[in-house]
Structure formats: C-alpha cells, structure tokens
Amino acid sequence: MNQAVNPFHPDLRRAARLIPNITVTRQVLAVMRFLARFQPKPRVPEDVAVEDTRVPGPAGAPPVRVRTYRSRTIQGPTPALLWIHGGGYILGQPEMDDFLCIDFARELGILVVSVDYRLAPEHPFPAPLEDCYAALRWLFTQAGTLGVVPERIAIGGASAGGGLTAALAQLAHDRKEVRPTFQLLVYPMLDDRTTTRTDIDGTSHRCWNQGSNVFGWRSYLGHEPGSAQVPAHAVPGRREDLSGLPPAWLGVGTCDLFHDEDLTYAGRLKAAGVPCDVSVVPGAFHGFDVITRDAGVARDFRGVYAAALRRALFTTRDS
C-alpha cells in the first residue's frame, strides 16, 4: 500500500499489513474456539485478587460464571464495573480481557466483574443478554457483601460486549430493577443493518469484516440480519427512544466497520438528552488496542476510556 494513501495510523501500519483477512464461518469459529484455549494468561500481580464465582442465572437457565478483580490495597466500599467481553456474540470468555480488567482494578481502585455469558449460535438472543442482566442484578443485590457502592456501578464492554452493554442499559432502564450509572462503549457492535450496506469499502477493515459481521448477527439473532423487525433489546441501534439511558462514552476508529453505526448511535443518544462523550481514533482498526497493546495510540486510547470511567465513578454529582 502506498505510504501517501495509507489509511492506518502510523503506530498500526505494520500490524495492519500482517493481520490476515479472515471471514468467520462455522468451521473457522470452531478453530478459533479451539485456539482460544491456549491463549496466554497474564501474571496476576500480588496486589490484585482474581476469583471465579457462579451467580444465579436467568430463570430456568444455568448459573453464570463471573470473574472478579479487586485491588488488595483498597479499603472500604468502592465503585464497580460490570465488564462484558467481545467476540462477535460467538466467541470469547472473561480471561481474554484479564490484562484490561486487572488494569481497571489496580489503576481505578474498583471492583471489576467480567461476565462469562453464553455464546451464539448455540445460545442466540436473548440468552447472552439475560446472562449479563443476571450478573448485573447480582452485583446490585450483593453490593453490601461485595463492598460496592450501588450508586456507582457502571457497565462496559468492547465490540459485541459493547453492543451487549448498550442493550443491557436499555433492558435495565425498561425493567426498572437496577440502574447502572454509566455505560462504556468501546467500538460497540450495535446495529445489524450494517450487514445490508453495499457502499462499504472493506479494504481498511481488520479483525472483523462484513462477512464476519453477517455471520455474527445471524448467529445471535437466529435469522438473517437486516430484517424489517427484530425483538426488543436484540439490536440496541434499532431502539427508537433512547431517552433516560445512563450517560455514555463511546470510542471507535476510522478504519473500523462499526465506525458509522457507532457515531450514529452516539448522535442519537445526545439528541435524546443522554450525555455521550465520543472519541474517534484516526486510522485505527477494530480491536487495535488489544492487538497492538503496546503501541502508543493503543495506550492513549485505553487511557482515554479509563479516564472517562474514572470521572463517571468518582466525580461527585449533584442529586
């Protein structure tokens, strides 16, 4: 690719050349799940406690495993973050975000709870979302035991985890049982209608292309994406009324397939009166902050959303 027209951020150009353009299919998914078993795990620092717990699942469903991260140096009640991993609704587990969740717990002094939700296509909507809701409800109901300030519980996630975060904010709003204070949306997968677009130039997309997007949404919805109607809470980008949702932060790169749908959703949140800070990273592709973890632009991006989370959880607000 000619350097003069290279769309990628300078810190990401080498990685962009090396990342293969793979479309997820059932066969590819099986291989990816197998390889994920061998993903290296970070060394857990001595000042962070990491534990696995099973919490009550949705009615008629199995318990939900959650992975908790807490700094051993923090005393007294703390804010908390319910974190939802990505993976296109079809892949992943909490351990894939150990690095990030450990950093959140250490740097912010909060309890982090990461959800091991059921995956599509074996468990399509609403199973993954209901698992996340069960974990959120547990976090609220056990706040006293966990040493958590219930008024300072945020939800967040990346990619499909960001989509589940947005849907969870909507579901919690409608059920009126629990109320998260903030939603952290890291390049979220929000709208199945992106799969029907024919004007998208995918040459600068990495890690998640249009073919994979079709497979992910089809697996999650249980039918072809982009249909005239979908169930409530299945596709957060389709919800008409966004008023009353928690304040949000949303970040995405210009080389991300979700760029347009993400900025559209952020604009609609603002139009509905929901505060939403937006960070757009020029030349960044999907998942860049994980794949190129040590790149300067990746560290800066993580710093921006960690700072947004800190403000949301620790800034005193007038009642």
Automatic annotation (TrEMBL):
Gene3D superfamilies: alpha/beta hydrolase. The keyword Cell membrane does not apply. GO terms for molecular function: hydrolase activity. Coiled coil: none annotated. Keywords: Hydrolase. SUPFAM superfamilies: alpha/beta-Hydrolases (SSF53474). Residues 81-288 form the Alpha/beta hydrolase fold-3 domain. InterPro entries: AB_hydrolase_3, AB_hydrolase_fold, GDXG_lipolytic_enzyme. It comes from the Bacteria. The keyword Membrane does not apply. This is Esterase LipW. It comes from Melittangium boletus DSM 14713.
